[in-house]
Amino acid sequence: MYKSKIKMNLQRFNGTGAQLSNELTGLIPEETSNEIIKDVIRGSSIMKLAQLEPMTTATKKIPVLLDGPGAYWVGEGERISTSKPTWAQVTLTAKKLAVIIPMTKEALNRAKIDVFEELKPHIAEAFYTKLDAAALMGTDSPFATNILSAAVNAGNEFTRGSVAGQNLADDVNSVMALVEASDQEPRAFTAHFGLKASLRGLKNSNGDPLYLSSIRDGVTEDSLYSLPIEYSRNGAWDKTKADLIAGDYKKSRIGILQNIEYEILKEATLQNTLGADGKPLSLAEQDMVGLKATFQVAFLVVKESAFGVLRPIGYVAS
C-alpha cells in the first residue's frame, strides 16, 4: 500500500453536493475516476509504452501469438504446405493499489466532489509512481513479472563501461544487439532522468546527433537511435540496478479497472507520513481523517527476450 508523504492543507474545500461525511465508503465519481486514470497514464512511463488491455473483471485471459504462420516456396504442381500459428493463453490478474492521504476532519463536511477534485493529482501521482516501480523495476511488486527481471532472465544485460573504448552510444547499441540476437526488435527505451545529460551529446561516426528532441502538440518527444525514449521522472526508477532498458514494450500488457474505490479512515497511524513532530501521523491523536483510494491494475510481460538492460557503471550483481 502506498502512503502519501505529501504535506497538504485541505481545509479549503467549498461548493455544493453531497457531503463526504454522508458517504464514508464507495466509488469515486466516474468522471473524476476517469480523469485520475488519464493522469496516471500521462505520468506513468510503462503505461505510455505497454499495450493496454481493458478489463471488466479482476482477471482476464488474453491470447498471445508465440509464432506466426509460415510461408513456403512452391514448385510447379507441388502441394502447398501449411502451418498454424502458435498461440498461448495468458492471464492478467488485477492487484489492488491503495493510497492514503490525510486531511482535516472539517473536510468531511465539505462537498464530496470538491474533496475528490482537490485530491485528484495526488492520488494519480501516488498510483503511477508505485505502478512504474513495480512494473519496470520489480520494486515492492505484487506482479509475477517485471521489465527488468525479464531482461535479466533472457540474458540480455550489459554493463556500461565494461568494454574498453566503447562510449555510451556503443553500450546502448550493445544492449539493442542482445535483444536483436533473440529475434526481437527494440522499439523504445526507458531510462532514469539523470541519464539524459549523458545521452544528449551522443553522435555517430559522421558527427550526426543520435539523440533528437522534437515538439508535438506542445509536448517534447525525445528519441535515441530514432526510437522514442521515455524518462522516469517520478522516483520509481532504481538507478543502482539500471541506467536504461531497451525493448519492444508492446510485449508487455497492462490491464486497468475503471472504478476507483474510496474509504474514510479515522483511527489509522500512517507510518510513512510524518507529522510536525517528526513522528508517524496518528489520525485519531491529531484529530484528522485519511482518504484511502484503491485502484486495480494488472501487469504482465509476455516475451522476456524482447527486453535488454544497460546496467550502471561498476554494477555487481548482489
Mean pLDDT: 84
Terminal residue distance: 26 Å
Helix and strand composition category: alpha+beta
Please summarize the sheet with the most strands.
7 strands, mixed
Q: Could you give the order of the helices and strands? A: EEHHEEEEHHEHEHEEEEEEEEEE
Subcellular location: Virion
Main location: virion
Organism: Aneurinibacillus thermoaerophilus
Protein name: Phage major capsid protein
Can you offer a commentary on this structure?
The protein is of the alpha+beta class. It has two domains: 2-65 and 86-143 and 253-301, Major capsid protein gp5 fold, CATH 3.30.2400; 156-252 and 305-311, hypothetical protein PF0899 domain (hypothetical protein PF0899 fold, 2-Layer Sandwich). Helix content is 22%, strand content 33%. The chain has helices at 30-43, 45-49, 112-137, 147-153, 168-181, 196-200; strands at residues 2-3, 25-27, 51-54, 59-67, 86-93, 95-104, 157-159, 188-192, 211-216, 219-224, 227-232, 244-247, 252-256, 261-265, 269-274, 280-282, 288-301, 307-311. The strands form four sheets. Strands 1, 2, 3, 6, 13, 14 and 17 form a seven-stranded mixed β-sheet that branches. The protein has a seven-stranded mixed β-sheet with strand order 7-18-12-8-11-10-9, sandwiched between helices. α1 (30-43) runs parallel beside α3. The longest helix is centred in the middle third of the chain and has 26 residues, at 112-137. It is found in: Virion. It comes from Aneurinibacillus thermoaerophilus. Residues 27-310 form the Phage capsid-like C-terminal domain.
